[in-house]
Amino acid sequence: MFDLSRGRHSACRSQCFVVLASSLIAVAGWLRPAHAAGSTEAAPADARSSSTYDWTGFYVGGHFGFGHGSLNNNLSSATPEMASNSFGSAYGGLQVGYNYEFPLGWMLGAEANVSFPNFLEDGVVSTPSLGTVTDEIDYLGMLRARLGYALGPYLLYGAAGFTWSQARFTDDLGNVILRNRTGWTAAVGIEFVLAPAWTIRLEYLHDHLDVVTAMFPTGTRYESQPAVNMLLVGLDYQLDRPAGAVSGPNSSQWPLPSDDWNIHGQFTLIGQGYPPFHSPYQGPQSLIGNSQFTNTISSTLFIGVRPWEGTEVYVNPELMQGFGLSDTYGVAAFPNGEAQKSNFPVPRVNIARAFVRQTFGLDGEQETVEDAPNQLPGKQDVSRITVTIGKFVVTDYFDTNDYANDPRADFMNWNIYGGGSYDLTMDKLSYTWGGFAELNQPRWAIRAGYFLVPTVSNSNDFDMHIPTRGEYVAELELRYTTLEQPGTLRLFGWVNRANAGSYAAAVALPPTSPGYPNIALTREVRSDFGSVINVQQSITDAVGMFSRITWNAGNTEIIGWTDCNASGSLGVQAKGSSWGRPDDVIGLGGVAEALSPQAQRYFAAGGLGILIGDGRLNYHLEKALEAYYAYSVTKAMTLTADYQLIVDPAYNSDRGPVSIFSIRLHAEF
User: Fold this and answer.
1) Among 223, 255, 287, where does a domain finish?
2) Could you read off the pLDDT of 175-220 as tens digits, one per residue?
3) C-alpha separations of 646 from 367, 423, 624, 657 in Å
4) 166, 279: one domain
5) Are residues 265 and 225 in the same domain?
6) Strands (E) located in 252-343
7) For the segment 274-321, what is each residue's pLDDT rounded down to a tens digit?
8) In b/e form, how buried is each residue of 210-242, taking b as 16+ CB within 10 angstroms?
9) pTM of the entire predicted model
10) Rg of the chain (C-alpha set)
């Protein structure tokens, strides 16, 4: 996911760093001993009478919170001008450290951590009278000593040490200059034992960074000095716990009983590239004809808590980095589901999901719920009503399919694992806010929901005209058996009410209008709607097939997903049982997509969509074929080889075909 024009010279260093740092949480899960959180194994009888806790040992963890800072800056060309600005952002990151507790309760430790700002951070804009310079913090790294005093399951501590940061300065012509900063850091905090292997902390810290200077090609000189204050919540996993270190109550008596909370994590690295292909011309949003290779990285923590019976709360902090091919342009059926519409030369943190789920059992037969990400273990009534409210991806619960639904595990192509012409409402990373209710019965389910839409197409800002604008969805799910093999049919419908432009109105604009045919000039509140027929069918215990048929009205610009007005997909997935590799998976699938006549005329006139825009169009259906083999390295790690053939990319028979080769490493605990 790295673009030469966007600071690729720092890509290798920052990618290697985030790969190492993001893997720490996954490593913690793989190293987790049998007596870790979730065990009901009691501590020795002589230990249970004590209330002490040994803090000695190594730990890894993550943190999230909010930082507010001040910035003194000086921008000068002929005449210097000084300013003082304030800024704020959510921050999140990772830490690793070691503690040693002395006999009288004093603790001495060392810790290294790194924090990244939220992907929506705007940065700080300097004095505008001389032009503008945007001053951003790419990351904050710290190496510090910790001194604390343990009071049983509590640890009061202070910390101080060395801090460093990367500053990113961008002028109003798009010139980018990177500078390294150093400084000092100090913090105070309190840490509390959640369970035998887990602790949670609340920390206030101050980072003071040195002055750095940047000289732009225009002759503008800029210097700045920031200070940042943060309030963070951290979660640590204790790795090297000595025998008898947990000498308090057994795990079922800790603050959170083992069945009422869980923590899972995932790490996904996708490398993707292609050789040169036929490309006689290029527009502003074309897939580049020259060969290229990019990568994407994501690391997610899935935290779930059941505060009381029937209620579950989930939060998913996530780190992301990288670029899609051609900055995620040029193909409607884009080949990497991890390549979203925001590109990150350095990691960015985001709360991917944060939602509450309330289940109302209707009695009768029960089913077992397995422990999984965003799923707490236990029993639940098969007949039930579930209400979910918060931030997540609509397709977490609607238009799902067991064989094609997750680009981290199965098909990577957007319109094979996704809904094609279903205009999924989302920010640039696929998430939105809203809620839905579901009635589940043994043979069927029905669900309906409402979700926020972006203020304009492909935006991170959501339209708060609730409920007159938004996405309204409904789905009927029917479960059946054919030749003793289970199948599911889902009938899904949606309506988007949003501030959107019209393809026909854009083409009808005067050819002399700015950016003709500029669809943004035609935006007003409009409705778009469509439907999806989604089927999955087991053929044997190891083989299954799937298909989606999608359609939308095709009159207005796409608000969130990709430029497509109709699609049909078909595929098959097989487990490796027949060749002695039961945890391996092989998949083969394809999709064909179409544009409406109005959209064809718009793109032929040079219009731009969310993902496509060659400047002109020799229209044909866009087709994508994908084949992959997922090799199970261990229970926790899978390595996938993937091939995709894109024919007539961006619906343009003047271009392509292009062969795309990918490798994917996915780890989870």
Assistant:
1) 255
2) 999 999 999 999 999 999 888 788 999 999 999 999 999 999 888 8
3) 43, 21, 5, 6
4) no
5) no
6) 261-274, 292-308, 311-322
7) 999 999 999 999 999 999 999 999 999 999 999 999 999 999 999 999
8) eebebebeeebebbbbbebebebbbbbbbbebe
9) 0.87
10) 26
